[in-house]
Amino acid sequence: MTETVALAQGWCALSLLHGRIEAHIERALQAGHELSVREFSLLDVLSRQHNGPGGHLQMKKVADAVVLSQSATTRLVSRLEDRGLLVRYLCDTDRRGIYTDVTETGLALLAEARPTNDRALREALDEAAREPELAPLVRTVEALGAR
User: Is the sign of the CA dihedral 55, 118, 140, 38 positive or negative?
Assistant: First the structure.
């Protein structure tokens, strides 16, 4: 097997693992909390912000963290804002900057959904570990989490 073929097979296995995990978590979050994986991720990223220097993320950094384009991130923020889970306001020091914070309602939903997310992730990894082509990737993900 050539190196290129091995790399392609490895990439396909990684993509398959990611897709299965995301689909499993999506179903669990939708059923239990009416949240998508992207919505949960956005709430999670924004909940880690703090006041003070470097405490708030620019929308580009938020977009990078949730693996979406800036325009898709803006639409996602708008949807969550409409649901009362986020609030946007102008930056005090740069009137062009807009901050996004998670509301108390959003934090409560995030706290409620986190165990569902964690459980679904564990289930998806356990299921994938039973497949020989995915088991090494699962071990790698688990080793990263153990650090």
Answer: negative
Residue that has been written with the tokens 């998508």 in this structure: 36
Instruction: State both tokens at 44.
Output: 């999670």
Give CA–CA dist 30/41, Å, rounded. 13
Cα 105 from Cα 61, distance rounded (Å):
23
What are 3-59's pLDDT values in tens digits? 888 899 989 999 999 999 999 999 999 999 999 999 999 999 999 887 766 677 778
The tokens of 140 are what?
Answer: 């790698």
User: 142, 133, 122: which is closest to 12 by C-alpha?
Assistant: 133
DSSP class of residue 49? -
In angstroms, the CA 65 to CA 44 distance is: 10
Question: pLDDT of 64-111, one tens digit each?
Answer: 888 999 899 999 999 999 999 998 887 777 666 777 889 999 999 999
Phi first, then psi: what are they for 18, rounded to 5°? -60, -50
**Are residues 90 and 97 in contact, defined by beta-carbon separation less than 8 angstroms?**
yes
Instruction: Check: CB of residue 142 under 8 Å from CB of residue 125.
Output: yes
